[in-house]
Amino acid sequence: MVTVRNIVVLTGAGISAESGLATFRGPGGLWEGHRVEDICTPEALDRDEALVLGFYDARRRGLAHVAPNAAHRALAKLEAEWPGKLLIVTQNVDDLHERAGSRRLIHMHGELLSALCRVCGEHTAFAGDMIGGTVCPSCSARDRLRPDIVFFGEMPYEMEPIEQALIACDLFVSIGTSGAVYPAAGFVQIANATNAWTLELNLDRSAGSHHFDDARYGAASQLVPEWVDSVLAMA
Ligand code: APR
């Protein structure tokens, strides 16, 4: 185990599962009745805009009915009490990390509570429905806002600062992700290449579990608070 100062945590849908938000590749492999490949693409948006806007409107409305769980809260506690650096990189588009109190956070796949204008390219806070008409608060374009979600085939956000943090970290922890989607699934290999200790906390083995130095399997709401307490005991 190296001396731990700088920590990077990657989270996926599994950390929000116990809050009641569906994972992407759970039983049946459908996300709320759709294959992600059919709904989470620029082509799907062009082919059937109402389906895609309506799908994300439903996801956005769903946020009002869920709350952070003990895993989100434990990571917020770690951020508040850890003397070194901590960055959370989440693949999730929900706002549960923020609502638990996390601030040092990057949403690499975008956010439900943000809209992207297809005219001016601005990202703006958005909490309502897109179906029924929108006006861009930045350029006033009508009905040209889309979900600020990184679709398959699009470049994830803030890859430069993420890679810098992975290279600089001493500890990389992956929580609640299947390791099915790149570039996030490759983060453990960047951390390994720069001699970080790597830990997987997941319900079951991910596709990349063989890359990790250590792993604990179980529910995030149990594993993450236990892990945070063990790290803070080292501080
Ligand atoms: N506690 C811990 N892990 C859990 C729990 C839980 N309660 N429930 C499920 N998991 C684990 C599953 O074992 C699985 O490995 O969480 C993982 C969820 O995997 P996915 O559904 O593939 O979600 P994720 O890895 O976040 O998907 C990555 O794929 O569809 C795209 O952009 C989308 O961000 C998403 C990306």
Structural write-up:
The chain is α/β, with parallel strands linked by helices and 235 residues long. It has nine helices and nine strands. The protein has helices spanning 14-17, 36-39, 42-47, 49-62, 70-81, 96-100, 159-168, 187-193, 220-234; strands at 6-11, 85-90, 105-107, 110-117, 123-125, 145-149, 171-175, 197-202, 214-217. Strand 4 and strand 5 form a beta hairpin. The longest helix has 15 residues, at 220-234. The protein is globular and about 55 Å long. The chain starts with 5 loop residues before the first strand and ends with a helix. The model has no long low-confidence stretch (mean pLDDT 95). The chain binds adenosine-5-diphosphoribose. Adenosine-5-diphosphoribose binds at residues 12-14, 17-18, 23-26, 36, 91, 109, 176-178, 180-181, 202-204, 206, 219-220.
Share of residues in helices? 25-40%
Overall pLDDT metric:
95
Taking the sheet with the most strands, its summary is: 6 strands, parallel
Strand order of the largest sheet: 3-2-1-7-8-9
Treating each run of at least 4 consecutive H or I residues as one helix, how many helices? 9
Order of helices and strands: EHHHHHEHEEEEHEHEEH
How far apart lie the N and C ends?
A: 14 Å
Question: Which ligands does the model contain, each kind named once?
Answer: adenosine-5-diphosphoribose
